Amino acid sequence: MHNISRILIEKSLAFYYCLKDPETPGWPKVLFFGALAYLVSPIDIIPDFLVAGIGSVDDVFLLVITLGTVSRYVKPKHIEQALALLDNRRGKRQAEQSGERKNGQYDSGSRAHMRNEDYYAKILGLNGVMSPSHIKSRYSDLAKQYHPDRVQHLGVELRDLAERKMKEINEAYEYFKNKR
Q1: What's the confidence (pLDDT) of residue 122?
Q2: Is residue 60 packed enough to be buried (19+ CB in 10 Å), middle (13-18) or exposed (0-12)?
Q3: Residue 92 located in a structural domain
Q4: Reduced to 3 states, what is the DSSP secondary structure of residue 106?
Q5: Residues 6+ positions from 152 with CB-CB distance below 8 Å
Q6: Distance in angstroms (rounded) separating the CA atoms of residues 52 and 68
Q7: Is 34 helix (H, G, I), strand (E, B) or coil?
Q8: Each residue's pLDDT tens digit, 71-110
Q9: What CATH number did the domain enclosing 133 receive?
Q10: pLDDT tens-digit map of 149-171
């Protein structure tokens, strides 16, 4: 469930950066904000109070059409901006949770202090079992699952997500391989 919510947040932020971008034409922005105004407006083509959610059909239809149209203008740079914001926030939150400080302030720019054996064990899902054969087995399973070539048919965003995850998996495996 956590991954689904992250994907929804990434997409929402990518739309935000797309709409904020001066290179995006004006009509998709007008369409998006017009649809948003329609969704919150008390006046609908099909009233929302009708039985069994029938009143929401026009809202859902408008939302799907609008997001489909605006998504054509989302560029890789918008997705990168969204991912950078989420990664930056995650780094700050982890630094705050760890309680580690540098010169009296949280070190949000560096995650090196978080990268210890527990960090890498969590990435590989080792659950306390640290034998070389188990580490290699977990690495192999995760590499099969997250290798970018295996998910390339699912789209650019998921392939990028898989590439980032695969880098973490490789880093964790190298840590344990060098340690043992």
Answers
A1: 84
A2: exposed
A3: no
A4: strand
A5: 159
A6: 26
A7: helix
A8: 888 888 888 888 888 877 766 666 565 554 444 444 444 4
A9: 1.10.287
A10: 777 777 777 778 888 888 988 88
The SS3 assignment for 13 reads helix
Q: One-letter amino acid identity for 150?
A: R
Q: Do 121 and 71 belong to one domain?
A: no
Query: Which of 50, 76, 102 finishes a domain?
Result: 76
84 within a domain of the structure (yes/no): no
Closest CA to 132 of 173, 90, 160: 173
Whether residue 97 is contained in a domain is answered as: no
Same domain, 126 and 68: no
Residues constituting the chain = 180
Residue 48: band (very low, low, confident or very high) from pLDDT cuts 50, 70, 90: low
Q: Of 157 and 180, which is predicted with more confidence? A: 157
Closest-CA residue to 143 (of 169, 119, 121): 169
* CA pair distance 152, 2, nearest whole angstrom: 21
CA 103 to chain centre: 31
Is 86 domain-assigned? Answer: no
**How many structural domains compose the chain?**
2
* Domain span including residue 66: 2-76
